[in-house]
Amino acid sequence: MKRRDALALGAALTLSSVGAAATARAAEEGPRAHVLRYAFPVATTSFDPARINDLYSRTITAHIFEALYGYDHLARPPRIVPLTAEGMPEVSEDFKLWTLRVRPGIFFADDPAFQGRPRELVAADHLYVFRRIADPALNSPLWSSVADWEIPGLAALRKRALDKREPFDYDAPVEGLRLLGRYTLQIRIGKTLPRFLENLAVSDLFGGIAREVVEHYGDAIGDHPVGTGPFRLGEFRRSSLIVLERNPMYRERTWQADPAADDAEGQAMAARLRGRRLPLLDRVEISIVEEEQPRWLSFVGAQADFIERVPAEFVDKAMPGGRVAPNLARQGIRGLRTLSADLVMTLFNMDDPVVGGLAPARVALRRAICLAVDLEREIRLVRHGLAIPAQSPIVPHTSGYDPNFKSEMSDYSPARAQALLDLVGYVDRDGDGWREQPDGSPLELEYATSPDQASRQLNEQWQRNMDAIGVKIRFRTAQWPENLKAARAGKLMMWGVGSLASGGDGQAALQRYYGPQAGQGNIARFRLPAFDALYDRLTVLPDGRERLALFGQAKLYAVAYAPYKLHCHRFAVDMMHPGLEGYRRPLFWDEWLHMVDFIPGSATAA
Hints:
Low-confidence stretches: 1-32
Largest sheet: 8 strands, mixed
Structural class: alpha+beta
Number of strands: 20
Radius of gyration: 25 Å
Shape: globular
């Protein structure tokens, strides 16, 4: 049996057993058991919100924890709405003082940490989230973002723990985090942040958490998430299976969404679902299937009910010309194509002695590498046309994105790349066909990659592109979580990653160029004072023409210094078997499973 066939069979058997177990449990529970099965392409890293920033872990935590605010499921353009908050916040004129109220009567899921007593969500649980992120023992990837808010007293508390090498004091007062009552909290920030509300609408990272749960599980908290969300973690087999179950303690909350008046599909969806109690599903069964062919075959074979982001190599078979293939349409399978608020890029480690730094020769090397990437070929062959070239780090559907902006990031010119390398001294001195560095030492790129088929195809493109300009490249293969850990530690030279917007403000995409975020959101470790000053101005300005002009300047810096090769913004193609009701791809939030239902055999249109 060929390896790919064996993988496909293995995935089908895995998903089949998951489906059989779900069916058996559904039979036990009676007609109300609605189960959705699908697959993640990579394993999760943790379910501790303070320690994650990868998409798939965040997808799980977004359904277990709840932030103060969230997004309307159908509104386009997106609209922030209260989630655990009672109403919108009270905000000072300078946008520095935010007073928020938690809605009474919201309870955490049952857990042994509560010793058999119902545990209500209170204001202190939301303040505790920020203290955990500040705790240096956690080394939270979110700390650089929270530190940037300049909450008075929080950084000093963190520094004291570091300097004295003692445990973080969770009980010490923090001037910027005040409890005004059981359900009322106040956050004071040190700078003007007109769009701070977006940070309070990220359930996967800033959802309320109970201190006693964290203390009960200690270092194992990443496997024991307990929140107030619509689902709880029912079963977890690392790198294999994640089961989300309906949270019996979830408050009485009904399906509500407000699509635009001219959104016929959204209006029809809302008419069918409005008023139903959430979550609509009883269980979600998520398998980890890294290989693309097995993941696709499991969907076609109905072992999975839904496939998020159809692998690019199967899109031509699934939706030729943008329409569902006739053989699939006859089964009632539907497909949706959405331009994502995302960006695919290759990072250059700016601390690396070969590709990093701001010296003119190093900048020229990175720009030459960017020019040598045949982006049109990559999109056509590897991504099967499901992308548009990225001209800047700002992503579609966010402020600052301009579809008419054009930069050299989308240019393909091996001739210009070679001329640039020749100009700054990256030439072939020994006649072996490969370029050396200006000082005569070997020039060899090392690209971090993963063992999946899509990565292998991208590696082939990189090999072809670099061969064409006489630059050696080799590939370092590891699982995605391992590459992420190494990248954060500054141990990778180059790595291809994707990023999805977490809010409607385009400035969030510029964090990866912001010096104080080096090693965190700024995974390339780019540091340029002029850019940092521009970023700081963007932070405090209200939306308007002046701010848009600064976005334009930021884009030029990003292209000129090239700490990232910007590849493309992808189209997401999602497909579903008949019976999936209420699905619409979120633009930059991760919670949606509670808003959909799956009734096998139903042919109701979404």
